[in-house]
Design goal:
The protein is an alpha/beta fold and 323 residues long. It folds into 3 domains: 2-121, 2-Layer Sandwich (Nucleotidyltransferase, domain 5), CATH 3.30.420.10; 123-182; 187-305, no CATH class. It has 12 helices and 8 strands.
C-alpha cells in the first residue's frame, strides 16, 4: 500500500509519498488547479499500485483535490487539522513546514486515520448554507453600525444603509433557496416533522449532516455538532459537565441550538425538560443545550428510521447533560 499526503494551500499543494513502512519515497509541489492536480495523480497512480490519498479539511481549498480523486476512482481520506497539529506537537523537534505537514498527513492516513470521502462530501448545499450565515452576520454588523451612528447624533442620509441591507437580504434568500434545491427532499420532510425545526433550519441540518450513516449513534451526532461536554479526569478525580467541546460543525451547532430554543417553548415534553433543568439551577444557555442534545436524538431517530417524528408518552432517548 502507498499513501500520498497533501498539505493543501490556496495556490498550491505540497505532497509526500510514503510506502507501507511509512518511509518517505517522493515529494511533490503542484499548483492547486484541477488540470495540474489530475495530471499529478495520474502519474503517481500509474507508478504506485494500491494508492490512497490523504489531506486535511481546509474549507474550499481541498475540494479540487477531492474532486480529482473521485473522478479518477482513487480513495481519499480527509483529516481533521487538529489531528495533524497534535501529531506534529508529539514529534521530538515539533517542526512545522508544508512538507512536514504533508508527510504527517500521509503517515496518519497509513495508520487508518481520516474519514473516507465520497460524492456527498462535495455537496454544494453546505457551502451555500455557510455563506448565507456569514452574510447574515455581516448584515447584523452593518445594522449595528447604523444604530451606533444614530445614537451618537450622526443621522445618516435617508436610504444610505437601506439599499445595502436589502441586497444582503436578497442574497441570503437566494443562497438558502439554492441550498434547499440541492438538499434531499425526504430528509427535509423528516426533519420538519420535529417541533422546533422549520424549513431554513432543516436545510442547514441536512447540508451539514449529509448522510446519517456517517454516525453510528446519536452520541456521534451530538459530538459532531460540538454539543458534547468536555470531561476532565486526573487520578481519582473526575470532573464532568464542564464546558462544551465545540468541535465539529459550528453551523450545525447553531442550527440545532436555534431549533432547541423554539422547541422548548412549543413542545410540551421539551418545555417540561427545560423547566426541570432551570429548577435544578441551570442558566438559560446550559438548559437550552440540554434540550438541543435531546433534539439531536430525535433528529438521529427520524433520519435512521426514515419515518416522521411521532410524539410518544415517554421519551427514552439518552442525552449528555452539561451545566
Amino acid at each position: 500500500m502507498n499513501v500520498v499526503g497533501f498539505d493543501v494551500g490556496k495556490d498550491h499543494l505540497d505532497g509526500a509519498l510514503v510506502n507501507r513502512s511509512a518511509i518517505a519515497k517522493q515529494r511533490y509541489h503542484v499548483p492547486n488547479t484541477g488540470l495540474a492536480v489530475s495530471k499529478l495523480l495520474k502519474e503517481i497512480s500509474a507508478n504506485h499500485a494500491k494508492l490512497t490519498v490523504g489531506c486535511e479539511a481546509t474549507g474550499p481549498y481541498h475540494l479540487i483535490l477531492l474532486k480529482a480523486c473521485l473522478e479518477l476512482g482513487l480513495p481519499i481520506k480527509v483529516l481533521n487539522p487538529l489531528m495533524t497539529k497534535q501529531y506534529t506537537r508529539s514529534s521530538i523537534r515539533g517542526r512545522k513546514t508544508d512538507n512536514d505537514d504533508a508527510l504527517a498527513i500521509a503517515r496518519l492516513v497509513l495508520r487508518g486515520e481520516g474519514a473516507q470521502a465520497s460524492l456527498s462530501t462535495l455537496a454544494p448545499a453546505k457551502y451555500y448554507v455557510r455563506l448565507a450565515t456569514k452574510i447574515v452576520q455581516q448584515k447584523q454588523a452593518l445594522d449595528l453600525q447604523q444604530k451606533f451612528l444614530e445614537r451618537v447624533g450622526e443621522q445618516p442620509a435617508d436610504g444610505l444603509f437601506a439599499p445595502a441591507l436589502e441586497v444582503l437580504d436578497d442574497l441570503v434568500t437566494s443562497l438558502r433557496q439554492l441550498a434547499g434545491v440541492k438538499t434531499d427532499r425526504k430528509m427535509l420532510q423528516l426533519l420538519t416533522s420535529i417541533v422546533g425545526i422549520g424549513p431554513v433550519v432543516a436545510t442547514s441540518i441536512c447540508a451539514e449532516v449529509g448522510s446519517i450513516e456517517r454516525f453510528p449513534s446519536s452520541r456521534q451526532l451530538i459530538a459532531y455538532a460540538g454539543l458534547d461536554p468536555k470531561v476532565k479526569q486526573s487520578g481519582l478525580t473526575l470532573k464532568r459537565n464542564t464546558k462544551l467541546t465545540k468541535r465539529g460543525s459550528p453551523e450545525l451547532r447553531r442550527a440545532i441550538f436555534l431549533a432547541a430554543n423554539t422547541a422548548r417553548r412549543y413542545d410540551p415534553e421539551l418545555r417540561d425538560y427545560y423547566k426541570k433543568k432551570r429548577d435544578q439551577g441551570k442558566a438559560y444557555t446550559p438548559a437550552t443545550i440540554a434540550v438541543a442534545q435531546k433534539l439531536c436524538a430525535r433528529i438521529y431517530a427520524v433520519l435512521t428510521r426514515g419515518t416522521p417524528y411521532i410524539k410518544t408518552s415517554s421519551d427514552t432517548s439518552r442525552t449528555l447533560e452539561t451545566t
